[in-house]
C-alpha cells in the first residue's frame, strides 16, 4: 500500500459520504397501437420516441398501426410521449391468434385487429380443469389412447 492509498482511506473514514444508489431500469420491449395514416405521422412518432433517454430501437409498422420500442424505458412514459405528438395511442391490445383458446368468444374477436391477431381478454382463456377439454381429448386424433371406435 502506498502513501496515497492510506491517505485516501483515512480521509474516506473521516468524512463519511453516503451515495444514493439509483434504481436500475430494466430493459424491456413496449408495444403500442398508434393511429398513423401517412409517412409524416410515422416520422413524427419515430422522432418523438427515438429522442427519449434509454431507447435503443424503434420499429414502426404503419399497416397494422404498431410501434415497438425496446430499451431501458418505462411503458407509461413512452405512451405519454407518443400522445404528446397528437396521435391516438394505447398499449398493444392484441395477442397472436394461435395463443388464445377461444378466439371467437365475445369481446375477443375484433374486425379491426390485424391479420393473425385477436383482442386480449380473460374470456378467451380456458378455465383450468374444465370438463369440456377432458371430454374433447378423449376423441382426439392426437391422443394415442383415444376411442378406437371412430
Helix count, DSSP H or I runs of 4 or more residues? 4
Helix content: 25-40%
Estimated structural class? alpha+beta
Percentage beta strand? 15-25%
End-to-end distance: 85 Å
The major pleated sheet works out as:
4 strands, antiparallel
Radius of gyration: 26 Å
H/E element order: HEHEEHEEEH
Instruction: Look at the structure and give the mean pLDDT.
Output: 80
Question: In terms of per-residue confidence, which ranges show pLDDT below 50 for 5 or more consecutive residues?
Answer: none
Report the strand count: 6
Strand order of the largest sheet: 2-3-1-4
- Write down the overall geometry: flat
Family: Belongs to the HIPP family.
InterPro entries: HMA_dom (IPR006121), HMA_dom_sf (IPR036163)
Protein name: HMA domain-containing protein
Domain HMA: 27-90
Explained architecture:
This protein has 150 residues and is an alpha+beta fold. It is 28% helix and 19% strand. It has helices at residues 3-14, 39-50, 75-84, 131-138, and strands at residues 28-34, 55-61, 66-71, 89-91, 94-96, 117-119. It has a four-stranded antiparallel β-sheet, with helices on one face. A two-stranded antiparallel sheet has the order 5-6. Strand 2 and strand 3 form a beta hairpin. The longest helix has 12 residues, at 3-14. The chain is flat. The N and C termini lie far apart (85 Å).
Amino acid at each position: 500500500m502506498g502513501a496515497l492509498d492510506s491517505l485516501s482511506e483515512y480521509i474516506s473514514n473521516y468524512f463519511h459520504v453516503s451515495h444514493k444508489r439509483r434504481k436500475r431500469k430494466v430493459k424491456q420491449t413496449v408495444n403500442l397501437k398508434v393511429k398513423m395514416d401517412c409517412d409524416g405521422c410515422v416520422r413524427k412518432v419515430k422522432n418523438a420516441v427515438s429522442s427519449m433517454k434509454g431507447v435503443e430501437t424503434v420499429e414502426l409498422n404503419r399497416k397494422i398501426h404498431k410501434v415497438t420500442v425496446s430499451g431501458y424505458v418505462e411503458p407509461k412514459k413512452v405512451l405519454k410521449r407518443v400522445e404528446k405528438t397528437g396521435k391516438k395511442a394505447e398499449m398493444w391490445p392484441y395477442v397472436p391468434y394461435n395463443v388464445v383458446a377461444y378466439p371467437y368468444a365475445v369481446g375477443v374477436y375484433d374486425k379491426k385487429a390485424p391479420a393473425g391477431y385477436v383482442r386480449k381478454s380473460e374470456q378467451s382463456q380456458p378455465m383450468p380443469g374444465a370438463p369440456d377439454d377432458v371430454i374433447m381429448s378423449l376423441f382426439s386424433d392426437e391422443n394415442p389412447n383415444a376411442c378406437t371406435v371412430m
